[in-house]
């Protein structure tokens, strides 16, 4: 037996095996890594098609603008007109003469001053149509101090509108005006005052409206002057108190059907145009938040519609503190001058579709990793490696490292190809931030795959579930999650709760990258920079912290579940507390189990089985067990299902197998042989009792046993893409073989089992026949000189020549090993096994060497005779006269078989009786044989109830 392999040796063996295995899967890996390239090419093709369409539209638009005096207008008789030819003296680039759609694209060197307005949700069929009575609007408010809020609202809306023609802006600053028009994201004129707009301006009052008004806006260009008449309708602002802001929010969103029309935004047929929360405000503290009706972009706030609200709140508080004579006037708003700009920007398909498609492409790695882990679990490949000495640490390190390497190559290809094709999503965002984000997420994704793999045992189920999660996550994230992020009123804590799900955290990061491409960073340039992580609206820093913490937590939970749920480890749910427990001395454990075994003595009436139990008890009392295998009342019970009772597969087994002995377990199908082997190799845990292998307990020291164990399972557990030589090299390294010793051991194993010649050794195992796979499995179980070997029907599927060669290998190998072998071949059992045990219904019925068993259970000759049907009774009479205690064990169509006790008959007497019978009737065939192991097996396993006593 070689020394246990070190951690480095185990990791080196697994790494070499994985590199070889992945080399055979190079096409699959290349296709996986190139998957994002396919997506990028698809997006690039879509982007190119969009660019072609946009360029064609821009060229057509340029032609129209060139015919319209290069984006400006001609003014005659106070009215703007587009003309093919325009005198320079009449060319005007003033916003009031531009249609709203052209205000952003034309040059505006002298922007107008316009009064600040509120945006009102008014009109749309709710007005009475009477010039004397305008529509009413509703303002909702709440706070901790209702009286304070009511006093402020009482001074917000002045009652009189008195126009001073020489100072129109000053006159309008003393009242509160509103409009139902919203503004574009870039404002260069207020559309409510444009000559192209005929919408009404509204004056808000708290008293009942009685009089409407109007005023003239004067525009000057050169020596010409034009007037724009503006109609002002009075509207009453109803101020209503609500208990909390959540009530206001429900009312706005339409969750209180009693007070407004279906769809929300209405209170008693009056539209809601604003809401204010005074929070904890009082005369010493002024803390207000307010809700505007529309906010389409969380990064853009239309100041022209919010600044009047700020002015109203400020004036109200000043009047509260200093009296009604105090006020702060807000005269006008003016945009900065600007040159001509394109009407529309380039549509970036990566920004529009990136959030959904990029989420999908990155999540595609999750099913790949999960399927690989579940495949190893379902096919017992990992436990096979563990049974030959591979520790958990080496497995986790190498497997995690491989998945991380393939994931980073995947993401590197994703980012590089996107950058090469010029996508702003990749090129504009800082590559350092992208690396940190993708690196953190792929590690989280790998940890999550290890965690989820503990919950699945079937590849198909895991595959379907994983892809449903991938596509479901992408769709939910793309169509639901952004609305929560963009809504400033949605509680931030719930956004954080949603981001705890890794798929939403991934989408949030991609969403932030896209937003910074669209809206720019703090310096005005597109793309995210490191300093932008401190932006209060930037969620990148938050999700990086969440993903980093989850990465560590998921790894720890995954390792815990792996240790608890893995059939190989056999650890209790509280295994991490084992170091704090006071351990019972091994001698005490053995003594206790010996006492338990004595209780079942009265249940055993077979001397050979009782003798084996006594031998086990004696071994357990020794201070150190140097026996190969000692089983002490080993029991396995499978819980009953669907109303069935529990199944006792192994019933209190006592067995001792020393070094140098091959013990054969015989028994019918379902007797419990494979359950016994599964407990001994760590696939399942004993229900009670235990077994000691070289002094180590299979319940607690299984990890230590794996380094000295060899296993040939009932079904071949091989990698189809690895050759026979590569299998043996891997398992030989796990047994701490190195250099020339490893090479020589592999060569000897291949030659001994006839896997060396004809290039068989270097042929992939997937191309082996069934017999070749069995021989390779036997070679794997014997390499590295393990001290204990378990072989579950090793010769299944072998031709006679290969079986004979296999027997020779096992005979040689058993000389310094304890070997337990199960078989259905009596010939194989006699040829290989030093002792045999016949297992029936989970318990040993007999135990001994083949000669002892045949002598004990087969002390008779077997006489077979075939005659015609009318002479069957003559044959029975002849046998009765020859041996009165003979038993008929077989009878069909004139052929009869009898058992003759050896102590009652001589062979010469049998020949004489047959010779005498031939003179009286015709005997077609006859034969006399000694008892075989097959006869013993049939008798012990329950076949003796078919016998018939002739006496």
Fold blueprint:
Elements (H helix, E strand, L loop, with lengths): L6 H18 L1 H8 L1 H33 L5 E4 L2 E3 L9 E2 L25 E2 L17 E6 L3 H8 L14 H6 L3 E3 L21 E5 L7 E9 L2 E18 L3 H9 L12 E2 L2 E8 L11 E3 L11 H20 L26 H15 L1 H14 L2 H7 L4 H29 L3 H4 L3 H23 L5 H21 L1 H6 L5 H8 L2 H18 L20 H26 L20 H13 L8 H14 L8 E10 L8 E11 L4 E5 L6 H9 L6 E6 L2 E2 L4 H4 L3 E4 L11 H11 L4 H14 L17 H13 L5 E5 L7 H14 L4 E5 L3 H7 L2 E6 L2 E6 L1 H8 L2 E8 L4 H11 L4 E6 L2 E7 L5 H14 L2 E8 L2 H8 L7 E2 L2
Parallel strand pairs: 4-6, 5-9, 5-11, 7-9, 15-20, 15-21, 18-19, 19-20
Antiparallel strand pairs: 1-2, 1-3, 6-7, 8-9, 10-11, 11-12, 13-14, 13-16, 16-17, 21-22, 23-25, 23-26, 24-25, 24-27
Helix pairs in contact: 1-11, 1-23, 3-8, 3-11, 8-14, 8-17, 9-13, 9-14, 11-13, 13-18, 14-17, 17-18, 19-20, 23-24, 28-31, 29-30
CATH superfamily of the largest domain: P-loop containing nucleotide triphosphate hydrolases
Percent of residues in β-strands: 15-25%
Which second-level CATH architecture of the largest domain applies? Answer: 3-Layer(aba) Sandwich
C-alpha geometry:
elongated
Question: How many domains in all?
Answer: 4
Could you tell me the radius of gyration in angstroms?
46 Å
């Amino acid at each position: 037996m070689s020394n246990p392999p070190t951690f480095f040796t185990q990791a080196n063996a697994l790494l070499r095996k994985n590199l070889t295995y992945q080399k055979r899967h190079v096409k699959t890996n290349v296709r996986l890594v190139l998957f994002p390239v396919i997506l990028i090419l698809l997006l690039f093709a879509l982007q190119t098609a969009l660019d072609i369409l946009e360029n064609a539209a821009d060229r057509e638009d340029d032609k129209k603008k060139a015919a319209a005096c290069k984006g400006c207008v001609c003014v005659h008789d106070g009215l703007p007109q587009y003309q093919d030819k325009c005198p320079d003296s009449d060319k005007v680039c003033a916003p009031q003469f531009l249609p709203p759609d052209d205000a952003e694209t034309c040059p505006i060197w002298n922007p107008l001053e316009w009064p600040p307005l509120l945006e009102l949700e008014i009109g749309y069929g709710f007005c009475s149509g009477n010039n004397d009575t305008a529509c009413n609007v509703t303002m909702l408010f709440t706070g901790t101090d209702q009286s304070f809020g009511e006093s402020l609202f009482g001074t917000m809306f002045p009652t009189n509108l008195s126009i001073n023609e020489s100072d129109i802006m000053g006159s309008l600053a003393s009242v509160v005006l509103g409009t139902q028009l919203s503004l574009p994201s870039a404002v260069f004129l207020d559309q409510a005052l444009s000559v192209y707009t005929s919408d009404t301006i509204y004056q808000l009052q708290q008293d009942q409206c009685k009089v409407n008004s109007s005023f003239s806006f004067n525009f000057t260009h050169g020596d010409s002057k034009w007037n724009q008449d503006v109609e002002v309708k009075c509207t009453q602002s109803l101020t209503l108190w609500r208990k909390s802001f959540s009530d206001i929010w429900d009312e706005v969103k339409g969750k209180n059907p009693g007070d407004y029309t279906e769809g929300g935004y209405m209170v008693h047929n009056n539209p809601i145009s604003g809401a204010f929360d005074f929070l904890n405000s009082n005369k010493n503290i002024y803390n207000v938040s307010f809700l505007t009706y529309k906010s389409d972009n969380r990064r853009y706030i239309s100041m022209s519609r919010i600044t009047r609200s700020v002015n109203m709140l400020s004036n109200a508080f000043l009047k509260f503190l200093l009296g009604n004579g105090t006020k702060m006037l807000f005269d006008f708003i003016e945009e900065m001058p600007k040159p001509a700009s394109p009407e529309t920007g380039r549509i970036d398909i990566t920004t529009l579709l990136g959030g959904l498609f990029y989420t999908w492409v990155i999540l595609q790695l999750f099913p790949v990793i999960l399927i690989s882990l579940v495949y190893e679990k379902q096919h017992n490949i990992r436990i096979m490696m563990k049974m030959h000495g591979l520790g958990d640490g080496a497995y986790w390190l190498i497997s995690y490292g491989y998945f991380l390497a393939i994931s980073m190559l995947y993401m590197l290809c994703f980012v590089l190809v996107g950058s090469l094709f010029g996508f702003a999503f990749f090129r504009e965002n800082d590559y350092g931030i992208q690396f940190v984000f993708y690196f953190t997420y792929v590690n989280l994704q790998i940890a999550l795959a290890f965690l989820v793999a503990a919950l699945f045992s079937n590849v198909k189920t895991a595959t379907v579930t994983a892809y449903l999660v991938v596509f479901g996550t992408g769709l939910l994230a793309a169509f639901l999650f952004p609305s929560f992020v963009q809504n400033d009123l949605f509680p931030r804590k719930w956004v954080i709760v949603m981001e705890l799900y890794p798929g939403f955290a991934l989408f949030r990061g991609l969403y932030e990258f896209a937003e910074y491409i669209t809206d720019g960073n703090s310096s005005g340039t597109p793309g995210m920079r490191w300093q932008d992580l401190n932006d209060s609206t930037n969620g990148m820093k938050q999700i990086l912290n969440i993903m980093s913490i989850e990465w560590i937590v998921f790894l720890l939970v995954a390792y815990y579940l792996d240790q608890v749920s893995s059939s190989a480890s056999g650890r209790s749910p509280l295994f991490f507390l084992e170091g704090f427990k006071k351990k019972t001395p091994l001698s005490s454990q053995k003594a206790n189990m010996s006492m338990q075994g004595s209780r079942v003595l009265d249940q055993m009436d077979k001397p050979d089985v009782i003798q084996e139990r006594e031998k086990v008890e004696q071994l357990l009392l020794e201070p150190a067990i140097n026996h190969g295998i000692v089983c002490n009342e080993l029991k396995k019970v499978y819980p009953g299902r669907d109303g069935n009772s529990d199944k006792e597969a192994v019933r209190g087994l006592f067995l001792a197998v020393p070094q140098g002995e091959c013990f054969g377990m015989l028994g019918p199908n379902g007797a419990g042989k494979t359950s016994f082997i599964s407990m001994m190799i760590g696939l399942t845990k004993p229900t009670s009792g235990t077994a000691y292998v070289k002094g180590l307990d299979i319940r607690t020291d299984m990890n230590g046993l794996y380094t000295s164990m060899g296993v040939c399972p009932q079904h071949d557990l091989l990698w189809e893409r690895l050759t026979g030589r590569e299998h043996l090299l891997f398992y030989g390294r796990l047994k701490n073989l190195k250099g020339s010793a490893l090479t020589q051991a592999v060569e000897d194993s291949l030659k001994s089992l006839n896997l060396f010649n004809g290039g068989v050794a270097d042929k992939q195992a997937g191309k082996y026949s069934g017999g070749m796979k069995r021989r390779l499995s036997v070679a794997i179980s014997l390499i590295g000189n393990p001290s204990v070997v378990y072989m579950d029907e090793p010769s299944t599927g072998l031709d006679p020549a290969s079986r004979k060669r296999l027997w020779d290998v096992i005979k040689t190998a058993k000389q310094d090993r304890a070997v337990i072998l199960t078989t259905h071949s009596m010939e194989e059992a006699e040829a290989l096994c030093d002792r045999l045990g016949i297992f029936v219904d989970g318990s040993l019925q007999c135990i001994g060497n083949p000669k002892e068993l045949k002598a004990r259970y087969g002390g008779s000759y077997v006489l077979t005779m075939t005659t015609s049907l009318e002479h069957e009774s003559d044959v029975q009479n002849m046998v009765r006269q020859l041996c009165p205690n003979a038993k008929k064990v077989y009878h069909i169509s004139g052929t009869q078989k009898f058992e003759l006790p050896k102590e009652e008959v001589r062979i010469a007497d049998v020949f004489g009786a047959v010779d005498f019978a031939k003179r009286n009737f015709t005997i077609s065939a006859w034969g006399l044989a000694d008892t075989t192991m097959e006869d013993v097996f049939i008798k012990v396993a329950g076949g003796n109830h078919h016998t018939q006593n002739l006496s």
